[in-house]
Each structure stands twice: as C-alpha cells, then as structure tokens.
Design a protein that fits this description.
The complex is a heterodimer of chains A (about 425) and B (about 450).
Chain A: H1 7-18, H2 23-32, H3 63-80, H4 85-104, H5 114-134, H6 147-164, H7 178-193, H8 200-207, H9 218-234, H10 238-251, H11 257-273, H12 280-285, H13 290-300, H14 303-312, H15 314-320, H16 323-327, H17 329-345, E1 349-351, H18 352-361, H19 369-381, E2 387-390, E3 395-398
Helix pairs in contact in A: 1-2, 2-5, 3-4, 4-5, 4-6, 5-6, 5-7, 6-7, 7-9, 9-10, 9-11, 10-11, 13-14, 13-17, 17-18
Chain B: H1 4-12, H2 55-70, H3 77-100, H4 106-125, H5 136-159, H6 167-177, H7 182-189, H8 193-196, H9 199-212, H10 216-226, H11 229-235, H12 239-251, E1 258-260, H13 261-267, H14 273-282, E2 293-295, H15 313-316, H16 323-328, H17 356-364, H18 385-408, H19 422-431
Antiparallel strand pairs in B: 1-2
Classes of the chains: A mainly alpha (about 425), B mainly alpha (about 450).
Pfam family, one (chain A): PCI
Protein name (chain A): PCI domain-containing protein 2 homolog
Family (chain A): Belongs to the CSN12 family.
C-alpha cells in the first residue's frame, strides 16, 4: 500500500474506493482501516475524536464508512499515543456495532464490504488481548477476567446472527458467506477463554450449510478445519481431529510453510495417538526436529527417554500448546513396552514382576507394585489392553487374542 | 487497629463483632477492634487520611488476628462461620488498604502472602461445613484474587531486582490450583530459573502430571511423602475427583474380584477403614461387615454421587505448629500481646482534647497553653445543675440550628459544633447522614 502524505490523501483514497462497490475495493479499504497497515504509523492519522471536528476531511461517498474511518483514527490515537488499550478496544467494539447496525442490517443484496468487517474483527481480537493484559488484579475491580474477550465475542456473535438470516438468493452477494470467517474469529476467542462448548451451534450451522460451503474461501476452510481439529483433540475425538487436520494440511498451499507447520504440530500427536509415527524426513522438512526424540521413545516403549525428550523440548511444546497432549503419550509408551513383555513371556498370565523388570531396564526406578497396577489398570480401562488384573496373584491376565489392539481401532484415548 | 471514626461509628450503629468485645463485660473494647472491610462509595476514588492505618499498625493487626483469633478455632459450625467471616472481613480490609496506598514494599508482600495462606487454610479446615456457614466457591474466588495480586507483586519486585524468598511457595500453589490449564503451564516457563527449579514447583509439576495421567497412586503418594501441609490443603479439593476416577478405573480393570480394603485405604489416602467403606457405599459398592475386602463390580455403580469432604489426620500431622505459625510462614511467629495504643481524641470526660495538629500549631506560637485541659475544651465541665440544664438547652438549639442550616444550604458546609461532646457529634453525623470531610478545631 502506498504511504500517504496527508490526511486529505488518506480520505480521498478511501472515498474513491467506496464508490467502486466491489470485493477488491472492499479488500483495499480493509487494509486502510487495519491496525497493522503502513498507514497506522503515520502520526497525522493519530487523531482523537476526529469525527466531531467541524472542519475536516470526509468520505463523501459513504456516510457510514466516514464514521468508521473517524473512529478508526480514534483507535489509532489510543493505541499509538495514549497507549490506552482499554479505550481503544471499546472504540473498536463501537465500530463493529455501527457496522452491524448500519451496514450489515440495512444494505440488502450487497456483500462487497465483508473484507472490511473481517479485518475489524481480527483487530478487535488483538485489542482485546492487549486490554486484558492492562487490567491489574484488585479486589474491588469490576472487570472479571476475560471480560474484554467476552465483549468482543458478543459483538461478533450479534453480527453473525445478522449475516446468517440474510435472505439474498444469489450466493455471490449473500452475507451468509461471512459465516465461516466469523466462526473462525469466534473459534480463536473461545480457545483463548476456554469456552469451546459455545461453538457447537456454529459448527452445526457450517455442517448444515449445504451448497453454500462451496462459496467459502479456501483460506477460511483451511483455518476452520485447523480449529475444528484442535477442538476435537480437546474433546478426545481423535477421528474427527485426524480428518480435519489432514484436510487443513493438504489444502494449505505449499508456500505457506509456517501455516503447514502449525497444522502439523497438532496433526503429529494425533497420528501418534492412533499408532502412526511420522517419518524422520517429514519432521526434518518442516523443521519439527523437536519431535524426533519423542517419536523414538514412543516407538521403543522407553519411558525414561520419553520423559527426557519432553523435558528437553519443554519450552517449544508448551508454547505450541501441545505439552499436555504429549504427556498422554506416556500411556502409549507403557502400552508398547508391556506389549513387548507379553510377547516375551508368551503366556496369557503374566506376573507383574515381569513388567517391573522391563521398567527397570528402560530406566524407570520409582514405580512400585501399587503404582504399576495403577498404570496397567489405566491401560485396561482405556481399552488399550484386553484383560484383567489379579491383585491377589500379582498377575495380569490377558485375552487370548488381540490383547493389545491397534491404537487406531480404539475410539477412546 | 481500627480508625477512630470507624470505632465510634460502629459502636453507635451496633456493628461491633463479638470478637471485638471484652469477654467479661461484653462491651466493645476499642483496643480489640480491627478495621472492617467496607466497599468504597461509588465516587470515592481516594481514601481520606483518617481512614487509613500506619504500616506498623497493619502489621500489628495481622499478627493480632493470627495470634488472638485464628488460633482460637471454635467448635460449633455457627461459631466457625462467625470466625471465618470475621477473619475474612478484617484481612480483606488489610488487602484493600495495600491497594489503596499502592503499597509495594516487603510488608505489603508479607500481608498478601499471609492472606493467601489463610484462604488456603480455610478451604481445608472448614471443608465439612454447609454452604450457609462456609461458601467454598467464594473462598476460592478470594484465593484467586490474592494469588493474582501476588503475581503482580512478584513481577514488580523482579523488575526492581528484589528477591522474594517465598515466591516458589506461591507459584507452586498457582500450578496446583490449575492442573489442567495450559496457560498456567506456559507461565511456569516464564519464571526465573531459581524459581522454576525449586522444590515446590517441581513437586507441583509432578503432582499435576500424576493427576492428568490419572495416576491416583502417584498422586497420593507424592502428597503423603513430599507435600507440605498447605500444599495438601490446596490439593485436598481434588481428592473427590481423584478417588472417584480411581474407583472407576479399578472397577473396569480388576475383573469381578475382591480387593483388600486396607490396600485401598492406603492407596487412596484415607485415615480409617470406616472412611473407605463409607465412600465405597456412596459409590454403590457393597461391603460386608465381616469382610476386609470389597467386590469390585460395576453393578449398581453410582459414581456421580458426591462424597462429603473432610479433613484428614495424615494431613493435619504435617502442620509446622499452630495455625498462626502455618499462616505466618517459614519464619518463627512471635507475637507479644502488647496493648497497642489506641488513638483517642477525647479524654475520659469525653472532652475533645487530643488534637496533635492543634498542639503542633500552638507549640509553635506564643499563645499560652494552660495546663488545665478544661480551659480550652469545647465541652464545659459539668457545673451546677442549672448550668447543665442551660447546657442541654444550648445543645438542643445548636442541633436545631445545624439541621436548619443543612436543609437550606445544600452545599458542603462547615458546621461548627460547639458545646457538643464527642458521642453527640457522631450521633448527629449519623442522624443527618453527614460526611465529615474535615475535622478542624477552632480556637476559643
């Protein structure tokens, strides 16, 4: 985007774009009211309450866009000059409410302005994050934690409702196409505040969208499946997680290495839970070598190695949000180890001492008999082992066939 | 430990707690009164000077509360509820003052740390009370707020390069309260390395790992062998969930076999076998009175039933001393119950005599200061009866005059309260719902 020399320049540019009424123009205007575009640095655009000035530039083509631009300058002022993110976030909420009321609800048969709206939502999320970190802990404080995220979610949900009931028959101009992008925006907020259950109706709506699904942008579809897959991981629905994350990975263009990598970070643990280990080549190609040691340990059934691998790459795994998931690989690793033991012992009744010995071999010395029973009990209860424990005889009795079913066959983790 | 105005106000409004009354007479005892928590008025941004206490007094108040109130753990549920409410309100007032004064010194840290330990303790020792007596959720919320304040304080101290020796202890509580929370886990990464590798944090992480792995064996073993009393108090909240998970897992993995109760008692950290059988029965597992085993069967399993919480001896035995010592912290708690001088502007004849500001002013000037306090007191000493009657009349007139003045002039007015003894001034304030902004003394 070319940089502007003056505020007149800026306004007249938007003015011209507002007259075009097409999606491309919408995308360009979106950049001009975003917080991350080059224009956001220009000091002459950091103005408080520009709209109330008697002598000022205007977007004559479109009164509402004019109002939005003025509010945007107010946000820029608060972010860049006053460093008041709380006011900035509040103002951004106002912009969205205005957009919803005057544009989404009133302008029939048009949707070229949706890119602007998407940008406003994304910036709102960023502002909410900044506002949250400003609030200090105080006994008398009115703001409960996450109230900024909540207010952001509220205004986006209201706009979502407006779009969803759009009766335009032509999908080219229907506002319903915004459903997916807004669902993604809400996904991100709900991940942050841990309210994923609120997404259920939105997910159902997308599932039921029928032919509309084809109108959605691929970028939005990839993002949606990425989020859906991550949510499925939380819900322990491995099959849905695998399906969604695979779709996202395959349809993410090869040039977006970092996005593909992000998807893989979640896809790899899911696949490992289903018993499929990633190859060395894949991990190396996407610079995910942190997983190498983990994969090796799980394949071998080596607990100590797994714990060391998790500890060594702790920072990376925690930052990516998968540390807790990877911890659950311990159970998978135990299963692999115990399967080897049962193969060696050969009989259906295996003394617990055998497992104890195996643990010592792989360097685990702090698990006593009680804890060993506890671990095996967990494996049986989660259907990774078919059999039962006899506490009295100190033995594990396994089923004659398929005592260690393949991981992909088991539905529950 | 309580500001003068509040003391008079509460006495008149009968808002004095039984904990603040003399045991023998039942009268309010000024030296036992501790500042109460009260919400600020909506437009009141800053506290007024006379509403605040000195740091020395705040510290004294906390120690007094620990020594004189906390250690006297009452018997009945009603008494315990009152005891909790008193301590909560008085410590809440302390925390509020810390915020109001923007205190960020070691004393502030100590105060908030002790409040945090207090609420952890409450959650455990009052766990068997009904909600009407003790609201666990409210207590947890308060605990959360204390921890949040502590997080800010630790950040602040770190920026100034001042080490906080108890930081590992409280960061560990944070982890233990949020075992399933990735956000807290990622915060652990941002701790300084000496905190990150400290014993409390390592234990907290191991405990959280065991909990998430559903390794009930390790969970309780770590608590029994390595955890402190307060760490057990924090984790105590998870006992119910851990045990019901354990039963669920065992019932699905041991086949229809008998399992020894003693082993179950040990693994699931009960004190007595009776407690095990009680819990198992609630979950739908039948136990025979003669047998020392339980049949682990899925039939009739009712894991959704809640088991009442109770304290355990094995946890109680971990205390480092009295409750006051536990809350005070690692350093030895010594409190000398000295009678703290209670500030009093009035002498024993209810005459307004003790005004430090006026004295300082008069000291600096050459107005002769009479040694007889009644010479410039505003209440005339009781003379003849007729004098008293006149006094009474004059007082009544004064009251009427003030009332009228306020009715007609709705603005803040300086009211000259002549001839009125202390108690009356405050009764007047109450009656007319006045706000005293400035208590200045006029020379006769």
């Amino acid at each position: 985007m070319a940089s502007f020399h003056s505020i007149d320049d800026y306004f007249s540019n938007i003015d011209n774009l507002s007259a075009q009424y097409n999606w491309k123009a919408g995308e360009k205007i979106a950049k001009l009211i975003s917080l991350v575009d080059q224009h956001a640095e220009a000091a002459f655009l950091h103005i408080e309450a520009y709209g109330s000035r008697s002598k000022r530039c205007r977007v004559t083509e479109d009164e509402i866009i004019d109002e939005i631009v003025c509010l945007h300058l107010h946000v820029l002022y608060n972010v860049q000059v006053a460093q008041d993110f709380i006011t900035a976030q509040g103002t951004q909420i106002q912009i969205l409410q205005l957009f919803n009321k005057e544009i989404l609800q009133k302008r029939r048969g048009e949707n070229w302005f949706l890119p602007i709206f998407y940008r406003l939502c994304t910036d709102l999320r960023w502002l909410s994050k900044e506002a949250e970190s400003c609030v200090s802990g105080d006994d008398e404080g009115d703001s409960s934690p996450n109230s900024f995220y909540e207010s952001a979610a509220k205004v986006i949900t209201e706009s979502y409702r407006t779009c969803v009931v759009d009766s335009a028959a032509d999908t080219g101009t229907s506002k319903k196409v915004a459903m997916l992008n807004m669902t993604n925006q809400l996904f991100q907020i709900y991940f942050q505040i841990n309210k994923l259950n609120l997404l259920k109706p939105l997910i159902r709506a997308i599932d039921n969208s029928g032919t509309l699904y084809n109108e959605f942008l691929m970028a939005d579809k990839v993002a949606y499946n990425y989020f859906l897959g991550r949510k499925a991981m939380f819900d322990a629905d491995l099959n849905l997680a695998e399906k969604s994350l695979l779709y996202a990975f395959r349809n993410c263009p090869a040039e977006s290495m970092s996005n593909k990598r992000k998807i893989l970070i979640y896809l790899i643990p899911v696949k490992m839970f289903l018993g499929h280990m990633p190859t060395f080549a894949l991990l190396h190609e996407y610079r995910l070598d942190e997983f190498q040691e983990v994969v090796a340990a799980v394949k071998e059934g080596n607990l100590a190695q797994l714990d060391a691998a998790l500890a060594n790459n702790e920072a990376f795994f925690i930052k990516s949000g998968i540390f807790l998931m990877l911890e659950k690989l311990r159970m998978i690793t135990f299963r692999t180890l115990f399967k080897k033991v049962s193969t060696i012992v050969g009989t259906a009744q295996i003394p617990l001492d055998a497992f104890q010995t195996a643990l010592r071999v792989v360097g685990v010395t702090d698990v006593d008999t009680d804890e060993l029973e506890c671990i095996i009990a967990n494996l049986i209860a989660s259907k990774k082992i078919k059999g039962y424990l006899s506490h009295g005889h100190g033995k594990l009795v396994i089923a004659k066939t398929n005592a260690f079913p393949t991981l992909s066959g088991i539905s529950a983790t | 430990m309580c500001t003068e105005k509040e003391r008079y106000q509460r006495i008149v409004q009968k808002g004095v707690s039984p904990f603040e009354c003399d045991i023998a007479t039942g009268d309010a005892a000024h030296e036992m009164m501790v500042k109460q928590y009260a919400r600020s008025a909506a437009d009141q941004e800053r506290p007024l000077p006379h509403e605040l206490r000195s740091e020395k007094i705040m510290n004294h108040a906390m120690c007094y509360l620990l020594h004189n109130i906390l250690d006297e753990f009452p018997e009945s549920a009603d008494q315990r509820a009152a005891w909790y409410n008193f301590l909560w309100s008085r410590t809440r007032a302390l925390r509020k003052e810390v915020t109001q004064l923007s205190m960020s010194d070691l004393l502030a840290l100590n105060l908030v740390e002790r409040c945090t330990r207090l609420h952890i303790l409450f959650g455990y020792v009052l766990c068997d009370l009904e909600t009407e007596h003790f609201d666990t959720a409210m207590n947890n919320e308060t605990l959360g707020k204390c921890l949040q304040t502590l997080r800010h304080l630790y950040e602040d101290f770190a920026k100034r390069g001042i080490p906080c020796e108890n930081e590992p202890e409280f960061r560990a509580y944070d982890v233990m309260l949020h075992m399933n929370d990735t956000n807290v886990l990622s915060q652990v990464l941002s701790y300084r390395s000496d905190v990150r590798q400290s014993q409390p944090i390592c234990l907290a992480l191991k405990l959280a790992g065991a909990f998430r792995d559903k390794n009930y064996c390790r969970f309780f073993r770590l608590l029994k062998n390595e955890a402190t009393f307060l760490q057990c108090c924090v984790s105590h909240k998870l006992f119910g969930a851990t045990r019901s998970n354990a039963i669920s897992i065992m019932v699905n993995s041991y086949g229809r076999n008998a399992f020894p109760l003693e082993k179950l008692r040990n693994i699931l950290a009960f004190d007595l076998i009776e407690e095990v059988t009680e819990t198992l029965n609630i979950y739908g597992l039948r136990t025979e009175s003669e047998s020392d085993h339980v049949m682990l069967t899925k039939d009739g399993l009712t894991l959704n039933e809640s088991v009442p919480m109770k304290p355990y001896q094995w946890i109680d035995q971990k205390k480092t001393g009295k409750l006051s010592q536990v809350v005070y912290g690692p350093n030895l708690f010594q409190f000398f119950a000295s009678r703290c001088d209670v500030s009093n502007s009035f002498n024993h004849r209810n005459e307004y005599t003790n005004d430090k500001v006026l004295e300082a002013v008069l000291d600096g000037s050459n107005i002769p200061v009479s040694s007889d306090p009644s010479a410039f007191s505003f209440a005339q000493s009781a003379g003849s009866l007729s004098m008293q009657a006149t006094m009474e009349q004059k007082r009544k007139m004064e009251v009427e005059r003030i009332k009228r003045k306020l009715v007609f002039e709705d603005s803040p007015t300086s009211v000259q309260a002549f001839l009125l003894p202390a108690q009356m001034i405050f009764q007047l304030v109450d009656l007319l719902e006045l706000e005293i902004h400035e208590f200045s003394v006029l020379a006769p």
